[in-house]
Amino acid sequence: MKTDLSAATADQCDDREIVKAAVRESGLAIRHASERLRADREIVLQAVRQNGRALEFAALNLRADKQIVQAAIGKWAIALRFASPALRDDHDVVLKAVRKWGVALKHASGRLRSDRALVLVAVKRNSAALKYASDDLRAELEDTNASGRQLGTGAVTLARGEHEKPV
User: What is the pTM of this model?
Assistant: First the structure.
């Protein structure tokens, strides 16, 4: 039986078992859950594991929960957008997001958009990510520089024999 919280009563949207069943089918059902249940770690984790965008509807404190944010990013990299500022500045979290979809760099902190190695990972995954790098780093990568990196058709090309350092 399909559980549709959009047509549910307030009592049903605050019923833990009903909400658990609903988010098991569609993580986005959490948008209709009560505030109390949008702050329930188990329910939110289940919702983001089903659909990463569910992070948008999670209580603010759970958007700062690294496990929940990483689960959301694992399903939908752009969920980084809904993570707490601290996690958008967390190297491991942002690396996971940009490895999945480089353009997730857009939602990283300014500090990490200036992180050369991280930006290279993002651009390697999706060349459009370059526009979200810091101004200085973007300018550096757009021009051929002394180390042999150049931006050709939108991707960073490494000179023959040069290898990226592990991130």
Answer: 0.83
Torsion on CA atoms 50, 66, 126, 134, rounded to nearest 10:
150
Instruction: Report yes or no: 73 and 93 within 8 Å, Cβ to Cβ.
Output: yes
**Is residue 162 over pLDDT 90?**
no
**Which pair of tokens denotes residue 110?**
């300014």
Whether 85 and 109 have beta carbons less than 8 Å apart is answered as yes
> Residue 49 sits in which domain range?
1-84
Of 84, 99, 130, the residue at which a domain comes to its end is 84
Q: Is the dihedral of CA 35, 90, 128, 126 positive or negative?
A: negative
Residues 6+ apart with CB under 8 A from 110: 134
